[in-house]
Amino acid sequence: MSNLTVATWNVNSINVRLGGVCAWLSAHRPEVLCLQETKVPDERFPVAAFEALGYEVAFAGQKAYNGVAIVSRKPVTVVRRGLPGDEADAPRRLIAATVEDTQIINVYVPNGSEAGSEKFAYKLLWLERLRQYLLADFDPKAAVLLCGDFNIAPEERDVWDPKAVAGKVLFHPDEHAALERIRTWGFIDAFRLHSPAAGQFSWWDYRAAAFRRNLGMRIDHIWVSSPLAERCSACWIDAQPRAQPSPSDHVPVAASFR
Asked: Is 176 part of the annotated catalytic residue set?
């Protein structure tokens, strides 16, 4: 086992944000960066830009929507794309790989649009399929890390105003129940091991000066199995990229392990 820092970031188009992502990698040098919403087909993924920084890349993308990738300074092995049973043209929302002794599952959970809609039902079904995948293919006694844009704020302290968002998508009881079923597989929220305070967010709407007013939600997560929780020395949100020109509406979340 060696020291490992894993970050996750919904970049809202890798080609639009490539300069900022590369600058962040150069400044922070995590061993692994998991990306969501890359919005690029595989043949157009900017592999060379990451290789120039000493990273290799595994990805699963599609034109204009979705897309996930794992960028790593260490060898990436046992790469798996999508959930079992996915059709060939299914949205690209999951990529899993092994880095040294750690199994990393990078997800872009469906947004759900609005409570009660067909897209909301699809989100809940997708989360249940993720749970079944975990039960069938992963062991909570091993080093397993689940990260990405979950599109769910788990608790009241994870949203700017619990009353304002109660019952809405991203903070709905049905989403909380689905997420809790995944947590009981054996996951621990790495961020909450180190930062119990409310008002710490990873996403802010582009509208209504939400970032300046800190009207955000913590919907980007790093969850770990018990063996990794014991090794977790830090977990933090880096809000600085949100203040840069043409930012993603999400910011990086990172965790370090001894």
From this structure: no
Contacts for 245 with CB less than 8 Å, ≥ 6 apart: none
Characterise 236 by phi-psi region: left (phi > 0), alpha (psi -120 to 50), beta (else): beta
pLDDT in tens, 3-34: 999 999 999 999 999 999 999 999 999 999 99
Task: List phi, psi (to 5°) of 38.
Answer: -70, -30
The residue annotated as part of the active site, out of 133, 149, 158, 220, is 149
The whole-angstrom separation of Cα 94 and Cα 83 is 7
pLDDT in tens, 127-137: 999 999 999 99
What does DSSP assign to residue 55? -
Which is it for the CA torsion 77, 96, 185, 233, positive or negative? positive
Q: Is 151 annotated as contributing to ligand binding?
A: yes
Told to judge if 122 belongs to the known catalytic residues of this protein, a careful annotator would answer no
Domain ranges of the chain: 4-257
* pLDDT digit string, tens, across residues 48-107: 999 999 999 999 999 999 999 999 999 999 999 999 999 999 999 999 999 999 999 999
Q: From the candidates 108, 158, 172, 221, which is the catalytic residue?
A: 108
Which is catalytic among the residues 55, 158, 221, 250? Answer: 250
> Is 220 a known active-site residue?
no
Residue 10 assigned to a binding site: yes
CB 31 within 8 A of CB 129: no
Binding site annotation covers 230?
no
Q: Exposure of 85 by Cβ count < 10 A (0-12 exposed, 13-18 middle, 19+ buried)?
A: exposed
Would you say 250 is a known binding-site residue? yes
CATH superfamily of 4-257: Endonuclease/exonuclease/phosphatase (3.60.10.10)
